[in-house]
């Protein structure tokens, strides 16, 4: 839920609560005042009536002088004669043809208001009555009832209640709509902040600045502070970007420039190696040649070892330069040329050539038939390099044990599974093994490598929309599961 909607709901909720309280107070006040006026009128009319009676004749009668005035106010009068068991009614009550319910004669009868239900035209109505016991010489002889049906008052209060409810709903809806508009306008600077930060997050344009609001309030201060921060971020990012671009150019240029002299060095070393071996094979002439150049056998062996070391280091440097060049291409946005690749043939070729790699572990290859008639959209050369990286990695870190290669196929993917029981690593190191130049502590200084192979493999995987799963335990070995999507086109 957005902040704008939450603020509007809070505002509308408070307004609704205030309107409910106000409406209840108004309704209760008008309700009490309306019925209070009606009761007062009934009581006043009751007290103004004159009752005439003769004790000897046991007769009670109404003074009809006020009859017309009473009927005009829709007030009904009923006189009960307990001695005769009869009653006398006002004309309007008699014409309506109903009797106001009255209590039996009892010494406990007192003056006061009583609400009763009367039936008129087959409908029941509430009637407010004021009853007054009549006594002669302390003896209860009758009961005077003056009442009114508050029909108009009830209808007025029902209309008032409905009006209050309807108007409250209308006011709340209007307030909600206006609140949304006001909240949108008030929070527009914050939306500008969000849009600007999204553009920066996407890396589209770091020069974006947040428009300054007109009002000089807290939001204006926030926008000013953020714009200053964005300026500093832009400057720092530009400096880092320039440094990174310079580094990428240096790595790329250095890799290109170093490949030629390294190739020359390796070629000359290989030539010297062949010459030394040929000289060594000519055992009869070695002593004379050594004496002629004043070179002893020990010097010969040391020279040969030096050439061997130079050859190994030159080969290692060539590998490092090639890896750096591959990563430089990746950083430069190199786009691989992809085609439909028969993954079964490719896998067979790689596992066959993998037997020739330097290794001390046993190399076991499982059934590859699941990959028959399966194709992948990608670069054949880079896919071979990808698989070689994981196999060489397993050989390096399995000095004594087994390296097993199996495959798996699902509905949409194939998997290369390279499992070894070598030195393994701590599972906490897994998130970092694809970083450049990263090497696990257990292997650092023990195995030969540049720390770039898995970084290159990760780049190749990303270019082929693939993924890799790593399961490892220090001292127990590692399993890499490489997933690649199948091409059904």
UniProtKB/TrEMBL annotation:
Q: Does the keyword Transmembrane helix apply?
A: yes
Q: Note the Pfam families from the entry.
A: HAMP, HATPase_c, HisKA
Q: Which GO terms describe its cellular component?
A: plasma membrane
GO MF, one term, reads: phosphorelay sensor kinase activity
Q: Where in the cell is it found?
A: Cell membrane
Give me the reactions it catalyses.
ATP + protein L-histidine = ADP + protein N-phospho-L-histidine
List the InterPro entries hit by this protein, alphabetically. Answer: HAMP_dom, HATPase_C_sf, HATPase_dom, His_kinase_dom, HisK_dim/P_dom, HisK_dim/P_sf, Sig_transdc_His_kin-like_C, TCS_sensor_his_kinase
Any keyword DNA-binding?
Answer: no
Q: How does it sit in the membrane?
A: Multi-pass membrane protein
Q: Where is the HAMP domain?
A: 184-238
Record's keyword terms, sorted: ATP-binding, Cell membrane, Kinase, Membrane, Nucleotide-binding, Phosphoprotein, Transferase, Transmembrane, Transmembrane helix, Two-component regulatory system
The protein's superkingdom reads Bacteria
First-listed, main subcellular location of the protein, grouped into a coarse class: membrane
Tell me which residues make up the Histidine kinase domain: 253-488
- Residue ranges spanning the membrane: these are 12-30, 163-183
| Enzyme Commission (EC) number | 2.7.13.3
Query: What name goes with this protein?
Result: histidine kinase
